[in-house]
Automatic annotation (TrEMBL):
Cellular component terms (Gene Ontology): nucleus
Taxonomy, superkingdom: Eukaryota
A Pfam family reported for this protein in Swiss-Prot or TrEMBL: HTH_Tnp_Tc3_2
Protein name, entry field: HTH_Tnp_Tc3_2 domain-containing protein
Location in the cell: Nucleus
Domain called Transposase Tc1-like: residue spans: 72-143
Biological-process GO terms, alphabetical: DNA integration; DNA transposition
Gene Ontology MF terms in the entry: DNA binding
Organism whose genome encodes this protein: Caenorhabditis japonica
Chain residue ranges for the region called Disordered: 51-99
Length: 154
């Protein structure tokens, strides 16, 4: 008999069938072979089933999100416009008049959902306008160099 490994989620029909089978006098071993699940799964399930008086488990509702779609977009937009901002600074920018919309942890979660993680942009050396002009002039002067001329540079 092949059995499943790991957590098993029984469907509602399976749950009722297991309860009916147990009421009809089938053993846990017979039920385990029929549904190809470990015996201990049925023991735990039947214990909970009896505690709820044969009612199926109620769906659990998750907590309502603190931010809406528009706020999530504003969080991502604030971070993309200035990648050097930390999560508390993004929260200050997004929150209206100092009343926080969400926690710093929520801001981090929204940024992670958007694919933005704890990475800061690389700091690059400042290039002055004079140096930039000199670099562009050098690049234009050497634009038509051949492979052999570049090899002499190395």
């Amino acid at each position: 008999m092949t059995k499943t490994k790991g957590k098993v989620n029984l469907t509602i029909n399976q749950r009722f069938a297991i309860a009916r089978g147990r009421e009809q006098g089938r053993t846990l071993r017979q039920l385990a072979e029929q549904f190809k699940v470990e015996r201990c799964t049925f023991g735990k399930f039947l214990k909970r089933w009896r505690a709820r008086n044969g009612q199926p488990e109620k769906k659990r509702h998750s907590r309502a999100p603190v931010t809406n779609h528009q706020t999530d977009r504003n969080i991502v937009r604030a971070s993309r416009s200035n990648p050097r901002l930390s999560a508390p600074e993004v929260l200050d920018q997004v929150s209206p008049h100092g009343s926080p919309v969400a926690s710093v942890r929520t801001i981090r979660r929204r940024l992670n959902d958007a694919g933005m993680f704890d990475k800061r942009p690389v700091k690059k050396p400042y290039i002055s306008d004079r140096n930039r002009a000199a670099r562009v002039a050098w690049a234009r002067a050497h634009l038509s160099w051949t492979q052999s001329e570049w090899e002499r540079v190395l």
